[in-house]
Design brief:
Length: 300
């Protein structure tokens, strides 16, 4: 079997057997196609460690980021480990493949005060009854109140919400289901939108939709529209237009930890498979604590 054919079989395995998310499968497919372009349509057994190192070296010469190199090396290691398990190769050439470690960057976090003022302003705008203003206020409150991903927000159906208990059932990466809590302000904003705004939006569509959040034409809202909303809302607070819904997720996690939440509980709320992923927020909190100390302590 040549490399492109094996790569197709591997990504099918990721999708159908391991049930990884569509975004993860796309990333693996892209990395392996790049590898196939570098080594050519050769038999899989002819790809050796030197060919893999040369592939990463070329990516370095192109100026690819360290995070991209690390991801591609990880994709190659997973692929060749699978190929050996499937007895497509005898020796795994990627066992000793090393890529630069990812640089760790702290995510942007909005201040509690800035978010409070922004959400209060959105609530005042929604009080006029405009369907889009009601929807936007509800989405912002829910993203911050629950820490859910934008894909999870867009995928919400009305039956997934329990406003009395303040919970939402979401499907995260790898189609893993979990229940996330949200607070009273989010519940109130969602209730107002469902009562006064959603029907006006759904009336614009030719067919009905089970989605909670709808676009201006009445269909399920897409991530791009949510990105635009969050960029406009958070840009002035964070000081950058290059922010999206993940900034609200980062802010929710950091503020939970600042308030004394248990790291394991935050991991469960965010739907992280690994506690190590959640631990980056402890670094964010430490940075904020150090900054406060430097500003406030006379001997800092």
């Amino acid at each position: 079997m040549d490399l492109p054919s094996a790569a197709d079989a591997f990504t099918t395995h990721l999708e159908q057997v391991r049930r990884l998310s569509a975004a993860t499968v796309r990333a693996y497919r892209s990395d392996l196609r790049d590898l196939a372009g570098a080594v050519g349509a050769v038999p899989l057994c002819e790809v050796d460690l030197e060919a893999l190192r040369d592939w990463l070296w070329r990516a370095t010469q192109r100026g690819d980021a360290r995070s991209t190199l690390a991801r591609r090396a990880a994709a190659a290691r997973s692929f060749f480990a699978w190929a050996k398990d499937e007895e497509l190769i005898v020796v795994d050439p990627a066992l000793r493949l090393i890529a630069p470690k990812r640089g760790r960057t702290l995510p942007p976090v909005a201040s509690k005060e800035g978010l409070r003022d922004m959400l209060d302003e959105r609530a005042r705008s929604a009080a006029g009854g405009d369907p889009v203003a009601l929807r936007d206020h509800a989405m912002l409150e829910l993203l911050y109140g629950s820490g859910m991903r934008v894909s999870e927000l867009c995928g919400l159906d009305v039956d997934d919400l329990d406003l009395d208990r303040g919970t939402a059932r979401v499907w995260g990466k790898g189609s893993k289901e979990r229940v996330v809590p949200f607070g009273t302000p989010a519940a109130a904003a969602i209730g107002a939108y469902l009562t006064r705004g959603r029907a006006a939006l759904i009336a614009r569509a030719a067919t009905t939709s089970p989605a909670v959040f709808l676009g201006i034409r009445g269909g399920r809202i897409g991530p791009r529209a949510v990105y635009a909303l969050v960029a406009a809302a958070l840009g002035p607070i964070i000081g950058s237009d290059a922010v999206g819904p993940h900034a609200l997720r980062h802010s929710a996690a950091t503020h939970l930890l600042d308030g004394g939440a248990d790291l394991r509980a935050v991991q469960e709320i965010l739907g992280h498979a690994s506690l190590g992923t959640t631990q980056i927020y402890t670094h964010v909190s430490s940075e904020r604590l150090a900054a406060t100390y430097r500003l406030a302590h006379p001997r800092a």
